[in-house]
What does this fold into?
Amino acid sequence: MLARQQIRRLARTRALPALSRPYSLPPPPQLERDSHGSSNASSTTHFGYREVPKDAKESLVKDVFSSVASSYDVMNDAMSLGVHRLWKDSFVAHLNPGRADQSRPGMRCIDVAGGTCDIALRILDHARERHADRELSVDVVDINPDMLAEGAKRVRKTMYHNTPQIAFHVGNAQDLGSEAFPDNSYDLYTIAFGIRNCTSVPDVLREAYRVLKPGGTFACLEFSKVTQPLFAQVYDSYSFSVIPLLGTILAGDRDSYQYLVESIRRFPPQEDFARMIQEAGFATGGLWEGKRGAWTDLWGGIASIHTGVKL
Amino acid sequence: MHPAFRHVARLGARALSTGTPTRRPYEGFVPLNTFENAFLAVGSAVMSLANPRRHDMIAALGETTAGPALPRMREHMLASPEGRRVLRERPRVHSNSVDMAALAALPDRTFGRAYVDWLERCGVTPDTRDAVRYIADPELAYVMQRYRECHDFYHCITHMPVSVEYEIALKYFEFANTGLPMTAISALFGPLRLTNAQRDRLFREYVPWALRCGASARPLITVYWEERWEQDIEDLKAELGLWDAPPAKWRKPRAQAGQLKASAPAPASPELPSM
It folds into this structure.
């Protein structure tokens, strides 16, 4: 309730007041070098199609996800007609996590913005079923405690509950913190449908580079640009007409889903994002789609998997 | 662009709800094109039946299916001096705008006193109505909002309590009086939720009264209820062309109504349990 009212109230003003930060988060880093070309912390960023002060975006995103947390899975199924499950299956299959050799220390994975544990559970299941790997562990990180609570609830229904294979942390993808997440500690970093909600994508990539071990893989599943023009038009009509209405009907919340649809449009296209990954220091494939390329399109570019390796 | 066409162009430009900032006709307006309107109508119908506590869905259903009924109601308002006053002044019914303590102090046979007695007896407040969101013309949006907010006045003037049976009877009345499709939808699907005995009584006693009375009475949307607090209620009913329904079964006895005493120190808005 509060989230919806806050969004409506904020929607009426052009310059938003600085919102107080929740106690569990560290303050956001001073943005010295950022893609918006200004080191002033009060400069603006985009929140869907609205311009908002940078420090406000985090809280706004957090509110959106508190509002959608409990109906998140239902909404994802309704909006993508269940297809998001296929995309997540493809994503994890593509990464192929898990080691057959159980004598070595287990693979350490970190799933960021992974609140409801869709990816984390798929990684654990894939390792267990394909490689008989029970040493692999996943650290689930999310900025929003409500989403993590939904995730923990999901995990309680599985065999991974109360095992060292899964752990939950509240954290900010742009600044995970060196004490909780030391340098060079993970083999696999995943972020699925989360990076477009982050204020500064280069900061997220920099943190990913920091926490990954040399040889570790960065993988991102995100909505992207549909290249085929006719399909793009159909997809646009569907996004802007149907999705906010589904949000109104199923979740009683149009604004959060309007934001979700707009945030997809604002995210850089495949090639630009691949360049950003390269700039963060990762080695990627060539700047093309598919075999030996930096990304793989799913369903014509509605979603896209970008990967990179820290050398 | 010629000023006369700017209004039309503005409405046309909002055919797709892309979220780009434009000047909106009123706060909270959500533009819908034909497809979106139909989608929301069907979706809200299904959702209202599935979960009748989703009052926002019931409101959305009413707005998306309003169609030509709202312009017709506006014509009725424009045809009467009182209705024109309502359209000009746009009174809103809200516990902030309705002085409950003053109404409770009115003499016994007045409309104002009957209204607060009715609120008390049913355990409702004037604040339970959703804001209109999906109607493009601000004046028609106001007509819809006014209809929604006056619903309780209709309850009061026809002396109907708020249980499902009487709500449906009142929907038949409203359909005969306003012609809004939503009232017909509620009237058709509402009885599914009743017991056989209740349905029997509804169609035998209340529906004939509702349809006859609603059709022959003056369009109630034209009434400026806030000007008539002090009017004698029987005179008001005679003026509007209403007559009493068959007696209804109330949950709270009449003796418990009218407990807002004028002598007690009146708070700004008395504690009424919300619906």
Chain A touches chain B through 20 residues (CB under 8 Å). The beta strands of chain A are 44-47, 50-53, 108-112, 137-142, 166-170, 186-192, 212-223, 286-289, 293-298, 303-309. The CA atoms of residues 45 and 54 of chain A lie 5 Å apart. Confidence is low (pLDDT under 50) at residues 10-41 of chain A.
